[in-house]
Amino acid sequence: MASTEAYAHEEYKRRLTHASGHATAITTVFGPEYPNVPYRLLRNRVVKAVVGHEDEIPNPPPPPPATIGSTVLFPFTLRVPYTMPQFSAVIPTPDTIGDFEEMSLPAGEESVKLLKAIKPAAQIVEEMMAEAR
């Protein structure tokens, strides 16, 4: 995700590279598209509010669901416009606009601590190979 080539929103990449400490949490509240499955995410406003309170939030939320943004699904082929409902599990891409404090931003618990810069994929692989040697 933290490569220049990754088709992820720049704000998502920025948040990944600025994460520190206890930056992630697990919750099951995300996903009308991915229901009731544990999901590790960067802590943002909505994650902080729902962790530990998942049983209090109906899934899906009662109609009409709040809209947190919009994006494009299948951006390289079909380009289907998509309105992101509250607790959407859709990952933000360059096509996404909306409230990033409400979006799902997946991140590994330990790996996110190691991301400090957005780099070309070739450089990331070279560095990994050098470390392995």
General description of the model:
The protein has 133 residues and is of the alpha+beta class. It has one domain.
How many separate structural domains?
1
Provide the low-confidence segments as ranges: none
Mean pLDDT: 92
Name the helicity range: 10-25%
Distance between the termini: 24 Å
Principal-axes geometry comes out as globular
**Computed structural class:** alpha+beta
Strand order of the largest sheet: 4-3-5
Q: Could you give the count of β-strands? A: 5
Order of helices and strands: HEEHEEEHH
- Taking all Cα atoms into account, the compactness measure Rg is 16 Å
Q: How can the largest sheet be summarized?
A: 3 strands, antiparallel
Strand content: 15-25%
Number of helices: 4
Task: List descriptors.
133 residues; three-stranded antiparallel sheet; 4 helices; 5 strands
Task: Explain briefly what this protein structure is.
23% of the residues lie in helices and 17% in strands. By secondary structure, the chain is an alpha+beta fold.
Write the layout of secondary structure elements.
Elements: H1 10-18, E1 24-27, E2 39-42, H2 45-50, E3 67-73, E4 80-85, E5 97-98, H3 111-114, H4 121-132
